[in-house]
Amino acid sequence: MKSLKQQVFRLELVGIGLSVLVGGLVSSLPAAAGVIDVNFSVPVRARLDLGGRETVTLAPFLVVTDEGETAIQQRGVDVQREFEEYLRRLLKRRTKLTVIEAGPVDYPSYDLQQLADNTDFWRFLGERTGAALILSGSLDFDIQDRSGYRTEEYVSPFDGRTYFRQVLVEQTGFEYDIVMEIFDGMTGEQLYSDNFKDFKQFEGESVDPLAGMFENLIALEDRISGIFSQKRVETTRALFTN
After folding, report:
1. Is the pLDDT of residue 31 over 80?
2. What is the pLDDT, as a whole number, of residue 229?
3. pLDDT at 13
4. 21 and 116 together in one domain
5. What is the maximum alpha-carbon separation in the chain?
6. Does residue 113 share a domain with residue 183?
7. Same domain, 10 and 129
8. Which DSSP letter does residue 30 get?
9. What is the pTM of this model?
């Protein structure tokens, strides 16, 4: 039987041989690939295929307001007028559509689902205005008093100890809920429908409701304009290099 010393020596030789073999394999491989991040923009198609349609008219949006309705009326905010003026400017600025004024519109119903199914009404409105597309829907803009007490800690200037106290925090919330519906001015058929929502919260109780409203609209602007026009989205991809 071989001595323990001889066996240990043999194992050391085997280990050295394996190390040389692995080292040779590693040196024969190409250098490890590097990774760099590349930023580029990707085109995103419009949600609605316009199919050559170039004109649109804005039918009055139905205003549905329950929570915060008194606050809105007291502050003199005309939700319908402000939104439609904003939407008209947005379409002219972000799309190639020509906006045609709808004039007075007498709805046969104020139920959104019944209106959506009334192809005769939308076809009549399309014929009267000459618009290829009719844009309408509903608006729900709420002003919410979000004030309440919040627990915070403070260090007493008398004994240096940390205490907890309840502090009144005055906050105002603005929530916009928009239903957008688009109809074919020739057939009266509904081509598109979607719901857009946004909520913003500000410190204080006397925040200008128009400021809150337009903060909501700015947050939704890309989504709304993306219905009609292609946009580009910035993205990052990893690129492997030798």
Report:
1. no
2. 80
3. 40
4. no
5. 110
6. yes
7. no
8. P
9. 0.66
Does 173 have pLDDT greater than 60? Answer: yes
103 and 19, same structural domain?
no
User: Residues 6 or more apart from 148 whose CB is under 8 A from it?
Assistant: 168, 169, 171
Distance CA 174, CA 4 (A): 83
Same domain (yes/no): 108, 17: no
The strand pair at 34-44 and 62-63 is best described as unpaired
pLDDT digits (tens, 9 = 90+) for 184-193: 999 999 999 9
Predicted pLDDT of residue 192: 95
Of 78 and 209, which is predicted with more confidence? 78
CA 222 to chain centre: 7
Into how many domains does the chain fold?
2
Residues of the domain holding 8: 4-30
Q: Are residues 111 and 13 in the same domain?
A: no
Instruction: Looking at the structure, tell me whether residues 117 and 221 fall in a common domain.
Output: yes
Long-range (24+ apart) CB contacts under 8 A made by 127-132 are: 127/185, 128/103, 129/57, 129/100, 129/101, 129/102, 129/103, 129/185, 130/55, 130/100, 130/185, 131/55, 131/56, 131/57, 131/100, 131/102, 131/185, 132/53, 132/54, 132/55, 132/56, 132/184, 132/185, 132/186
